[in-house]
């Protein structure tokens, strides 16, 4: 079903094809032909300096900081923290007030508010030193995948896990694992995609055999720092508890691999529906695997939740991810590599990319989550629709083949009709044969457009 609509979406214009190609490349877990690309030899940098720990130790001298870090305006910080359970929390403003330490302050504040540091015998000063190091390993030069994003995803997860419908479902350790996984899920992200790293034979891609390259690296980076005695906040936990925490965090972060999106969504939907059938309409997650699957869905939903936020926040994140895409495209141009979809700043299709992202990726996942958490996600779904309409109304009308190529009025009506049809038919699923045949039609359409260009 999804691939058939992507094929139709790609036929509307060149930019539509670009969006469809990007969705398929990013969210379908499929093998690619071996490509002979120029090799990049250097491994991604890992910042680990004593000065970072010294900085944290200085911050912890004297009175213990109320919010994990020293701030200039405690009243302003207190006002922000009072809004920490608000879905439209302004993480950009929080980053400024926390003196560019949003992840340190947010993680400490959330875990303290929930009593999780005390519950698992975690030394607060050690945890804060550890988070200073983690935060330093988020690249400030990344427009999108930086410490602000890590903090934003953690805060969103905190909000969702506070809803009554799931509050009693998960154990304290599972909640701790989910929040911690969000905090570290993109640490040392280079601002480049898994596909780029594989295509350029980056050492990380070689190390992880092209499978969930960045997700494995984020996990390895986070757990590597825990091996340092002065950063090992988990040393007070019993061995079995610590091992279980590690297992859960690994499962949760690996589930943020976008190529697993469709299979994860299908598994969650099946699990939720089966549970409700077996328990007279009530959601009962009896096994660890069932709870972990739903928790993976929550973490993944938070990772792509910007489209469910208020329009100013969504636009701010959109500008950042598009610029990060463009920066990768610039590197691909320098290396004479084929340009990845959505990465060519000379052929922008921002509005259409956001409509496609919402229609094919965010909305189906959040509708599934909405069913799981009903009625607590209705605000997000309403905002998601408003944001979709905002970008849809701004898709430029221009002659085919121009830089700002977009659909005409008739094509817009077709997009609306396809979207409505998809909403009605969602949940019916599609066979593997359909999936393969639709992928083939998309690839054929790509080849036709490539030749015509």
Describe it:
The chain has 453 residues and is mainly α. Helices cover 63% and strands 0% of the residues. It contains 22 helices and no strands. The radius of gyration is 22 Å and the shape is globular. The model is unreliable at 30-49, 398-407 and 426-453 (pLDDT under 50).
Summary keywords:
single chain; disordered C terminus
List the helices and strands and how they pair.
Elements: H1 2-11, H2 14-27, H3 50-59, H4 74-81, H5 91-97, H6 102-113, H7 116-119, H8 124-136, H9 147-160, H10 164-167, H11 172-184, H12 194-199, H13 203-207, H14 213-225, H15 239-254, H16 261-278, H17 288-303, H18 311-334, H19 350-373, H20 378-392, H21 409-425, H22 432-452
Helix pairs in contact: 1-2, 1-21, 1-22, 2-19, 2-22, 3-8, 6-8, 6-9, 9-11, 9-17, 11-15, 11-17, 14-15, 15-17, 16-17, 16-19, 19-20
